[in-house]
Model the fold of this input.
Amino acid sequence: MRINFPGTAKRKLVAGSSIFCSYYSMTHIIRKSNSVIFKLFKSHDVLTFLLTMTATAATSSLLYYLVFSSSSPTRTNKASRKPTKVEDRRAIISKRKMLESPEERYASLRIGNRFLNPFEEWTDIPFYKTLFFWLRRYKGNGIPRDEKALEQALPTHKPDFDRIKNKENGVTFTWFGQSTCLMTIDGVTILSDPVFSSRSINNYIGPKRLRPISCSLEEVIHLVDIVIVSHDHFDHLNEKAVETLGNSVVWYVPLNLKRWLNARAIINVVELDWWQETFYPFSDLMIACVPAMHWSGSRTPFEKNNTLWCSYVIKSKNNTLFFCGDTGYSSDLFKAIGRKYTPFTLAAIPIGSFLPTHLMQHLHMGPEDAIKAHLDLNCPRLSVGIHWGTFMMSDEYYLAPKQILEKAWAECKRTLLARDSQTEDRVGSSSAIIAPPTHTRDPPSVSETRPENSMTDRAEQTEQGLLLTEFITTAFGQTVNLI
Done:
């Protein structure tokens, strides 16, 4: 008699696999009846018991699956069933394509109590693929066992607190690892994604920090005015750091994350949606929450996407910072941010956790995508690579983000500085004309202000832009400043 399993082909495959596993297990045990199990127990009764339990477990699992799948929506007519969240997301994206405003096309998307990504580049990865990835994380990423070699490869510096405190320095930047950065802009100090623990989750659980953090939170807390949080993953939001900072700072967080902070007695919180702007109290410092392509959750087994994720733009009278949260690369998105908020004095852009590509490309940018984002943002005066060399949670060599960035950036500058039209066509529209910011730089040259009437004009403008922009990495704790 033919068994007709309900559901899709994938469900039939699961059901069939259950029968196969049951059959294989029983035949394997019978063939090995004279092996260790039989010799150990010296009893056919034990062997019979094992056979019975194996068959019972497999059959029970199969019956459980069949019973519960009988009420599955896959048995109903496709025309009458309720669309899935993925189908709803695709339909909304399709409708939004007709909208002219990026703020409307890339408004935050929420279906039910879950946030979703409104980007065509986004790909939903099944849980089992993520699970298999973590189960095979044993390669070590090429990290040297010799502590001196590691120290030489990833040096740590003590932050230059004199520079940080000097309000005459328009912008300073200090990277502590992962996405934890201390930035000052016109006298206001901002801490991003605060994580100061020795491991990604806390001091005891999670991937270990490759190098000791260059200073403790207690050493900088008195300097901090603002904390910005991009999303709620453990390596971006540490509970102990939150408790230490408390209400001594103003917290800026994406939608639905405020209640998590409130539950820990943190009430000095401003919650923002994508494209929403607000001002730091009693100042002209504007803080804007802008879109990113990522996800949230994982703090408990049953959380996923119940809070929003984002990047930030911080704009003063004289300078503008861009702090990029975890995100995959979307050219149209970065161009939209660039058009709305350029010129940028400094941008902190993630460059790590990009392998394996099929799992990571929609979650994190690698160095080459980060350079594309830098160009789409109209070339900030200085971009700094972050989110690398701290907690190894991907497959690339531990120094690959830095090494690839240096090589790719040098090649990018060589390519863009070439003046023939063939080279410019190969570069592409995302990086063709780069008008550098002028408010913190030398007076604009003629090529920056005259109309673009020829290919030579375009090349000269690109060259001038690239001469006034840089994309670098820094050591842990190293302080750089832009006056």
User: Anything to note?
Assistant: Residues 1-44, 64-80, 426-462 have pLDDT under 50 and may be disordered. The radius of gyration is 27 Å. The chain is about 35% helix and 15% strand. The first helix runs from residue 9 to 31.
